[in-house]
Amino acid sequence: MKHAIYFLFALLLVFAGCGDRAQTNKLDLIDSLATTDEYDSAYALFRSIDPNSISDDEEQAFYGILQMQLNARYDIILENDSLADACISYYEQKHDGSRHARAYYYKGVNAFMRGDTVAALTHIKQAEEVEAKAYTPWLRYLILGNLAFIHNCMGAHKTAFAYSKKALDQLNSSKTDNAEWICYVYDLIAQCHLFLGHKDSVFAYYAKTIPYIEKIKYKLDRAAYYTNAGYAFYLTGEYEKAEPLARKAFELYPFSTMRINLAKVCHALHKDEETDTLLKAAWKEAGYDEKVEILEFLGKISEEKQLYKESADYYRRARAMQDSARMARNTEVLVSAQKNLDHNELERKLNERNKLTLWTLVL
After folding, report:
1. What is the CA angle 49-105-41, rounded to 5?
2. Confidence class of residue 342 from pLDDT cuts 50, 70 and 90?
């Protein structure tokens, strides 16, 4: 974050005396920084803007687009669509196809983060339709890639594969050297092959992915791709190949997701003591969903040992935990709907971020 501090000091000089265009210049610069993966600097500059100082309709709409974009990057969920709908309405009236499509896109991303996969698919398809007339190459790539991602989540793996190949074609046509984007599309295609049972193709695409991972700027993102690759090898029974990747992810980001994935690999390799240590540590920091995963995995281990009473108890606890998770989510939605999230609330949620999302590509 040090570079962000120096960067902001320089901005004071850049924007001094800019007059009425100061806010517009800031918004343009935030957009540019985010587009080039300088999210820390973009977010710091965004935080420096008082939303009450923006009175111009165009600036308000652009501010809204950037707020949704940064929210998505930092896993900050808006519990209603009022901001997205206001941006959609404004850019539709202005016939600005590119930003109109962006507004639909971020509406879809936020819906996915809320857990509404159907709404996410609907809104990102709307973004695809609007963008087709405007043609914004980087946005088209993200739309295609995330349509592939969502279809995979919904079990429509052949449709996901078709979208992922379109995303790859779009990427190739741009001739980009952006390691994050390259990893994302290769990872998507590998995951499609995994679900479709094409084992050799899974290995082939991860062989293409791995050399680019170390070029990615953010440690969390590198860890996400390593754990994806390692878990894919684990699921295909290639435990020896999975282990170094799972360990690399864990070394980069010793988080509950990484601990659980490494624990599963260690169990497959009969490293029982390490498996137990990893799962105990993961439990302490895991959320509801990951605790369910841990309990189900412990149930599976007990079943393998023919400890059926113990296994049944783990599965019972997992079901109870799932019920608790549903109740907690319902309560969170009710509470969040009453809040007007100001910058301080956004920062609090950012600092308390407690889960890994692999939805990392949301420019």
Report:
1. 35
2. very low
